Amino acid sequence: MSGIQVELQSAHGFVPLLVVLLLFVNLWAGMKVGKARKLYGIEYPQMYAEQSDKNAKAFNCVQRGHQNILENIPIFLALVFTSSIYRPQIAAIASFVRILGFIVYMSGYSSGDPKKRMQGAFGYLGLLASLILSVEASLRILDCCEIVH
User: Fold this and answer.
1) Ordered DSSP codes for 81-124
2) Is 94 in contact with 83 (CB distance < 8 Å)?
3) 12 by DSSP, 3-state: which?
4) Which of 2, 88, 112, 143 has the most C-beta neighbours closer than 10 Å?
5) How confident is the model at residue 4 (pLDDT cuts 50, 70, 90)?
6) CATH number of the domain where residue 109 is located
7) Residue 2: inside a domain
């Protein structure tokens, strides 16, 4: 069994910065939910407003936007680490695009118009690039394809 050596490049330093940036985006989204709870009178531990509540749509849009970010954090973390193994600069750009997508998604969704969340769909380009880079890194580590070397 042979080992693989990967040399850390200075661009690998973007990886922890992007993780911290995502942490702040998540905190910002959570604070938006907290403000919406106060504004619309939705008490803890109630996750979503009941449909009969006059402010249900407005609150639920904010809450759903935050939940979407929470659901995507594990995927983001796995991809930012694996995609950056060999191409940290490209991975950093892709991850930054994904984070910008989260911000625009949350801003649009929390407006109360669920369709505006789609303004953040460009973030999926960052996700796609991260997926491709992660597969490339896996294939290079497995040393199974000449095309990726």
Assistant:
1) HHHTTT-HHHHHHHHHHHHHHHHHHHHHHTTT-GGGGGGGTTHH
2) yes
3) helix
4) 88
5) confident
6) 1.20.120.550
7) no
Is 6 inside a domain boundary? no
Cα(120)–Cα(98) distance, rounded to whole angstroms?
9
Give the list of residues 6+ apart from residue 90 with CB closer than 8 angstroms, or none: 83, 129, 133
Q: Are 101 and 122 in contact (CB under 8 A)?
A: yes
Cα–Cα distance between 141 and 130 in angstroms, integer?
16
The pTM (predicted TM-score) of the whole model is: 0.92
Rg (CA), the chain: 19
Question: Which amino acid belongs to residue 56?
Answer: A
H-helix segments, 10-87: 14-40, 56-83
Span 93-112, pLDDT tens digits: 999 999 999 999 999 999 99
The total of structural domains in the chain comes to 1
